[in-house]
Structure formats: C-alpha cells, structure tokens
C-alpha cells in the first residue's frame, strides 16, 4: 500500500485547479534489524493451537458432554458413552494443549481419579457400561472436583437466583472460590 507523503496542485486546461497526491515508492524488502531477530524457540507463544481452532475446541468438548449425557439417557448406550469420552478428552487436550493435559492427568494427587476414569472407559468399551459409568463418574469427580468452587461462583453471579444457589451449594460441596490450577 503506497504511503501518501504530500500533495501537488496543478493547473490543467480542462477543469481548472485539481488536487493530486503523489506517493513514495513501496518498500521492496522487509527485514528486521538484527536485534529483533530471534530463533523460533525463543518466540513467546501463549497458545499452543492458534485461535482459529477455538470453535473446534469448544465444539469437541461440548459434543463430548452431549454424547456422554445422551448415552446415559439412552440407557447407558456403550457407543454413545465411548464417543462422549473420546470427544471430551480431545476437547480438553485442545483447550489446554497436549503437555498440560498430560501433566494434569499424571499429577500424583490426581492418580486415583485418572486411574478410575481410564478404568471406567475401559469397562465401557469392554461391554460393561453401567459399572464403567459409575467408576468413570468417580474418576471425573476426583479429577475435576476442584473446579466446583469456580462453577459455584459462576452460578452465584446469575442475576436473580444466583445468591439463593451459591450459599447452599458451597455448604454442600465445601468448595472455595480459588482456582485449582
């Protein structure tokens, strides 16, 4: 795109005075000074996956939860529960990135939840959906139970019913509003 640097007034015989702009020539090469150039490994990147995949992250997580709940409503349909589990784990890994997802599931204090979650998924795939569901539910509560304080805080900010929900839910769960991560 040309850079406008001034104007020129000319007299043309047909239409009187006209105002015309002239521009500087475009830059042919764009090179950064040596002080700015850094190796790719040193460039900060806050997101592992670019923001153009944000709808994919949300869609896969929500679809996983939908399939999981719909599998329960269809009397513990094995295929629906398995699809829900796969999509949910893929969505979580797209949100957090593969390294953070692995470190979340591999933490020492989350080992019981991870083991129960994986055992439940295995039992669902091995044609024991009812038993697998309850073991997996126990694993999910152990893995993501720390986030209940945040969820209750969001429910408490709902305009009309929020204050009525927040107090009893905090007493039942014993949750605080601090983030677990």
UniProtKB/TrEMBL annotation:
InterPro entries: Got1, Vesicle_transpt_Got1/SFT2. One of its GO terms (biological process) is retrograde transport, endosome to Golgi. It is found in: Golgi apparatus membrane. The chain crosses the membrane at residues 56-73, 79-96, 117-141, 147-165. The keyword Calcium does not apply. It is a multi-pass membrane protein. Keywords: Golgi apparatus, Membrane, Transmembrane, Transmembrane helix. GO terms for cellular component: COPII-coated ER to Golgi transport vesicle; cytosol; endoplasmic reticulum; Golgi cis cisterna; Golgi membrane. PANTHER family: CGI-141-RELATED/LIPASE CONTAINING PROTEIN (PTHR21493), GOLGI TRANSPORT PROTEIN 1-RELATED (PTHR21493:SF9). Belongs to the GOT1 family. This is Got1-domain-containing protein.
């Amino acid at each position: 795109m040309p850079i406008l640097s001034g104007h020129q007034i000319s007299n043309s015989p047909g239409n009187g005075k006209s105002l015309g702009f002239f521009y500087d020539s475009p830059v042919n090469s764009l090179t950064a000074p040596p002080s700015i150039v850094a190796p790719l490994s040193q460039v900060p990147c806050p997101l592992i996956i670019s923001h153009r995949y944000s709808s994919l992250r949300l869609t896969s997580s929500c679809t996983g939860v939908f399939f999981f709940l719909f599998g329960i409503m269809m009397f513990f349909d094995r295929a629906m529960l398995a699809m829900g589990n796969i999509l949910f784990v893929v969505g979580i890994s797209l949100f957090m990135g593969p390294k953070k997802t692995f470190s979340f599931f591999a933490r020492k204090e989350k080992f019981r939840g991870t083991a129960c979650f994986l055992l439940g998924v295995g039992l669902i795939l091995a044609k024991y959906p009812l038993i697998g569901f309850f073991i997996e539910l126990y694993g999910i509560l152990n893995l993501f139970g720390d986030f209940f304080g945040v969820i209750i805080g969001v429910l408490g900010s709902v305009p009309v019913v929020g204050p009525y929900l927040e107090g009893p839910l905090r007493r039942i769960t014993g949750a605080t509003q601090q983030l677990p991560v």
